[in-house]
Amino acid sequence: MGITVQNITGNTAVVIWPKMASCVDSFYSIMYHPNWNSMLPSYSRKSFQKEERVPTSRSSFVVENLTPLTTYIMCVTCQSANPSSDQCRVFNTLERDPASVNNTKKELALGIWLTSSVLLLIIAAILLYGCLHLLCRRRHERLQEQNRTSKHDHGEAWTKSVAYTSGEFSRQSRQMKDTEEKHPSGIQLATIIENPSARNEPVMSTSKSKERVPVTGQCSAIN
């Protein structure tokens, strides 16, 4: 068939074949397999690792995703049959292309960057959630502490007020008791002053006593 393999690189190769008028199928079968030494000499279709089908209107095909520095066997047939030796060619791929290496590095760097960005976003979301949860918890604890402090202060104020009232009442009672013990006459005088009826009654008794004294004296003189 006059098959030729051209433009061989580390990952691609172009296979060219002449059109055959005797090919009645609607496609060409392009089969290739690495490691020619492991290939059986029978050229069985199932022995090939890859197989591509292209329309009969075409006479070339670009084979991709090849392995650098590898020996390949490639066959082209115009029917779904096992190829013969004159329908196959053996070729060797080259080293990896610098452009391909650069593209691979760029893809790798892009993948690493995307992965790192996703991880950073996840970590940032977790940290943000933790901070918000901690702030809410502290705010809740602060409000509870303020409520407890307010209740405690109110209780202390009420206790102090009750204690002060009780102490003041006790002090006044004690003062009154001391006053009564030290000045009983003064208490009685104050009682008399406050009660007018009690005040007039002793005075009248005193006047009557004064009137009786001279009478008694006169009686004595007469006797």
From TrEMBL:
InterPro entries attached to this UniProt entry: FN3_dom, FN3_sf, Ig-like_fold
PROSITE patterns: FN3 (PS50853)
Transmembrane residue ranges: 110-132
Keyword Transmembrane: yes
Pfam families, per the entry: fn3
Keyword Transmembrane attributed: yes
Keywords: Membrane, Transmembrane, Transmembrane helix
All copies of domain Fibronectin type-III, residue ranges: 1-96
Renumbered residue ranges of the record's region Disordered: 198-223
Protein name per the record: FNDC9 protein
